[in-house]
Amino acid sequence: MSTSETDYKVDHLFLLVGENPLPNYIAAKMLLKEKDGDKQGGTVHLVHSTDTAGKADCLERMLAPINFDEFISLGKSEADSSVIRKKIQTRVKKILDIYPNTTFTFGLNYTGGTKAMSVHSYRALFEASGVPDAKFSYLDARSLQMLIDRENYSPKAETVPIKLSLQEIFDLHDLRWESEQKPVSEPILHELAIEFAKLHTDPSLVIAWRWWCDNVLKPATKILKKKQNKPPEWEWKKDDLIDKVTLKPDFALQKLNEALQEFLKQPEESKSLLEAFQQENFKTVKELGNFYNALWVPEDKPHIEKVIKLLVHGKYLGEYESELSLNKMAEISKEIAEAYNQSDENEKPYLEKSKDACRWLDGLWLEHYVLHQVEEISKNHPGLINDSGMSFKVKDAKKEKFEFDVAFVKDYQLFALSCTTDASKGLCKSKLFEAYIRARQLGGDQARVALVCCYNNPKDLEKEMKVETEVDKKDPKIAVFGCKELDNLHVHIKNWIDEINRYYAP
Question: What local confidence, expressed as pLDDT, does residue 339 receive?
């Protein structure tokens, strides 16, 4: 007994709608008979609960102009076998009664919905009167194949010939861009980002540059405002007030000297410096000590000089200047975009304002670098990746906001890449966990997730994450790339994709 290329396609396809409508979308596109001339194409019957009614609406909109019959609502009875059986068999009887002299094929894809819905729906269609040879199927998250059940035989595995865009995946979940802020499809200043990535393979430079961003760049471009009954928060200065920011190797020592000079003015003439420290229980000594430990000590000077040399070479900083002009950096970014014919006003693939340049230096460069590395894979391996982008700032129907840093799609499989220039384990783990949750929410069990960061022990973090998410330690669905992998990151990402393909091979 065997199946041809198309005998799994049916006239009437029942789909069980779960929290993730992506498998339903794939099943409808693949398993339903297409319209052929005057012959009408197949019809979809969506079986949903009260909680997944909105997902059913999204599917109907996304699958147009495919034919849909009235939705089959189970209400709150998604685990009630009698309700499920009655509703499905009633629908089958209605179809056969309307077209008594027509032979139809029926099918059920039981990937979505709850386990109870799958079991009871399978049984209901299997036992339905007038349906002698129903086609049952399941989208396998491991092999990424559609498994067609065959009585007394193992399931027939069919390749899924469907490629999705990132936009389609977001649309399936009825997600919209926040404030009409579209995702970025072209990396900005990718050549400079490549050089930044090379420098960040050194953990010492990571620490030194992070100090400059937090203690020099941020105060120069933001104001710490007090909030009533809330902790103070950083807010952007007006763009015309953001221009130059000091960048020189000895600036940290200069800042420490200023802090010490300021403190020396504080003690009263009648008190010694020691008495002043004692009065505050040596709190100031601790603060100054913490401040000093975070500074660019002499060992850090060569690392900052490397960044300065890089910026001078790119003409973002004059050879004898000690102040970096954010406005000038934005202007050069626009000139480069125009040279590459990328000056589309709708997308603006350049740094539009000084604060954009600040964001780029503060860590956004890593996202642009990762996107460029994904594009390198697409260029070197045509057809492997069908869509990619970054900065997905979205909100759902409940107006909950979240963000994807970088993402790409291989066929219909979502790969989500979270990015951070932070080197602390706590923040890196938090970013990875959030990306894991969101990736599964959008891409289902087929989704894969990675963190690109500056943490120096990425494999330890990867193992820990797999334990907490109950993922087998050999399963490559979660990956972490640290500072050592930043140089030629596209090679490591491609190796990760290959490892996934081998692990999940049928």
Answer: 79
Q: Which two tokens stand for residue 68?
A: 């849909």
User: What are the angstrom distances between the C-alpha of 31 and each of 135, 161, 461, 489?
Assistant: 9, 11, 41, 38
Between the CA of residue 54 and those of 17, 59, 176, 447, what are the distances in Å? 10, 9, 15, 22
pLDDT digits 0-9 by tens, 169-206: 999 998 887 766 788 889 999 999 999 999 999 998 99
Please give the pLDDT value at position 3: 43
In DSSP notation, 76-113 reads T-TT-HHHHHHHHHHHHHHHHHHSTT----EEEE-SSS
CA triple 40-45-48, angle to 5 deg: 160
Fold equal for 12-162 and 358-503: no
Return the DSSP state at 177.
E
Where do we find the tokens 């540059």? Answer: 209
pLDDT < 50 regions, the chain: 1-3
Report field, pTM of the whole predicted structure over 0.90: no
> Kind and range of the H or E element at 158?
strand 153-159
pLDDT of 279 reads 64
Give start and end residues of each alpha helix (H) in 384-447.
425-443
Neighbouring residues of 384: CB distance < 8 A, sequence distance ≥ 6: 377, 378, 410, 497
Q: What is the pLDDT of residue 277?
A: 66
Annotated domain spans of the chain: 12-162, 190-232+239-335, 358-503
Q: List the one residue out of 491, 437, 424 whose CA is nearest residue 469.
A: 437
Q: Are 427 and 456 in contact (CB under 8 A)?
A: no
Q: Please spell the DSSP secondary structure of 126-145, one letter per residue.
A: HT-TT-SS-EEEEEETTTTE
d(CA 167, CA 393): 13
What DSSP character marks residue 184?
A: B
CATH number, span 358-503? 3.40.1350.10
Task: Tell me which architecture the domain covering 12-162 has in CATH.
Answer: 3-Layer(aba) Sandwich (3.40)
